[in-house]
Amino acid sequence: MSSSPAILRHQDDAMPAAAAVTEPTPVPVMTPTPAPPSFGALAGRWYRLNQDSLRATAIGVISLAAFLLVWHLLTTYRVVFFVRFTNVPSPLAVYASFTKAIHDPKFLLHILLSCRRIFFGFSLAAIVGVLLGLIMGRFKLVHEIVFPVAEVLRPIPAIAWVPMAIMLWPTNEQSIVFITFLGSFFPILVNTLHGMSLVDPVLVRAAQCLGARERSIFREVYFPASLPHIFTGLTIGMGVAWVSLIAAEMISGQYGIGYFTWEAYSLVQYADIALGMIAIGVLGLGSSLLIRGAGQLVMPWRAK
Amino acid sequence: MSEIATATPQGHIEVKNFSLSYETIDGSVEAVTNTHIHVKPGEFVSIVGPSGCGKSTFLNAVAGFLKPTTGTITVDGERVSGPSAERGMVFQQYSLFPWKTVRENVEFGLKMRGMPRSQRERAARTLLGLAGLEAFEKHYPEKLSGGMKQRVGIVRALATGPKVLLLDEPFGALDAQTRVIMQQILTNMWQRLKISVLFVTHDIDEAIFLSDRVYCMTARPGSIKAEIPIPLERPRQQSMMMSSEFLALRRGLMSLIREESLKAMGGEINDLGMQGLNIELHGHSLADVI
Ligand SMILES: Nc1ncnc2c1ncn2[C@@H]1O[C@H](COP(=O)(O)OP(=O)(O)O)[C@@H](O)[C@H]1O
Ligand SMILES: [Mg+2]
């Protein structure tokens, strides 16, 4: 197709209009080159610009320290006041068990296996949930078929699937991944659907009268327009994935950080309970930071 | 058929016996009725009318988004059956893709046509240069002012070289200064590209300043009440808006519109009501006086 753009056709005679057409473009701002500021002045300016985040960081550090201190005091004095701190490990005991654990290949294996289960379960949920959401949002019939089933299954917590999952899948590993998948699948699907329902119809029209066909509209309009909601779904889904994973590991696992935590209780290794909990917290935080980072990469237009 | 179309000048819009009704719970609501218009190739035609009279409805039908209830819309003899890149459109709401940079927005139509990346980048840069936007090619729309957004919208619509450009109150949301600049930019581009333009507005000055011909639309259900040629010479200057010729055209259009605006408001304000407000009509109709 020799569709050299009509615009190029007009280019020659359009050029002279440039001067007439242009609205005065912003004049480049002429800043007089200032004398290099002193270190003190620079530091002061940097401080003023970052004041808010510095403040937040400082308060955050103080608050965490206070939390550790309270924890330390409660366990050192074995406080019993409705709640019993008699057997709760102190921060120092947990730290000691942490330094031991990081040299223990078994502990690292627990963590690695949990991460792998999250990776497979969550990735699968993300792919299936987003695709299905996009298709359901665009094709009414698919929506009408899938939606009732989804609505019935959605309120069932992933943990309630444990017995069924064990029956369904030949190996324990598969059933745990399946439960992780289920936990994150519905939030991702629902948010993708929500995003699709909010796509501005004017943008679809704009694409149509620029020559976009169904597939391009899907790829160039519906998908990017839904991305912010898709990422909301992914963030929530990641949280639920960890909840489901830990529960599944505690019930039916042989490995994994959830299993580690539960095993520590059975073996009366109290410090390891707290260690397991903290590890779960850190892993959960890390994975949600990953998602947020991915969101910023994929949606540069939403960067501040 | 297509040979004839390429041989003769392009962008001839003809609308005959057009009407469009919306189906609502309360039955069908006629938005536009019995409308005939035409735009000759390369002509700049405006439609003015009070708000709610069906201007957007009409333009959306020409764009191919709405099906006429009766009548036909043709461009160069071919019946409009759906949206197409032949008919570029600029919307009242800024309709840039927020996830695309200014240049990517302008490239969109060319991309849809399968033009290779490097070629369409070059084309988009040239066009953005014409609109004085080259410095902003990498910006996302969110960071642009309203005037710039709408300029990008116009450039984007023109990028594919449509036969016809449709604009639906494109400057309605802009401040007066920016509006004037935008009008100038639009006329310049139109004169360069020799494209047919159908421009919808409720602003009479804007319609006169820009157009070769102005159609005046009645209150809902909208239909064409009058057709006014604008014989002002081109290129048009801002100063012309003070000329007696311009003012005479303005007065004529103003009275036509006033009448319709009053009707659009429900006809509650009748001549008697106005007399109650101590305004003497001296036998003139209300529209002449207000
Ligand atoms: N989708 C719709 N359903 C029902 N009525 C509509 C719809 N869109 C517009 N209308 C009505 O049709 C009339 C014309 O609307 P519109 O074309 O937007 O007018 P204008 O652009 O001149 O302001 C209005 O009275 C409006 O309420
Ligand atoms: Mg309108």
Automatic annotation (TrEMBL), chain B:
InterPro entries: AAA+_ATPase, ABC_transporter-like_ATP-bd, ABC_transporter-like_CS, ABC_transporter_ATP-bind, P-loop_NTPase
Top-level taxon of origin: Bacteria
Coiled coil start-end: none
CDD domains according to UniProt: ABC_NrtD_SsuB_transporters
UniProt keywords, alphabetically: ATP-binding, Nucleotide-binding, Transport
Pfam families in alphabetical order: ABC_tran
Domain ABC transporter: from-to ranges: 13-244
Molecular function terms, GO-annotated: ATP binding
Family per similarity comment: Belongs to the ABC transporter superfamily.
Record's function text: Involved in beta-(1-->2)glucan export. Transmembrane domains (TMD) form a pore in the inner membrane and the ATP-binding domain (NBD) is responsible for energy generation.
Name under which the protein is recorded: ABC transporter ATP-binding protein
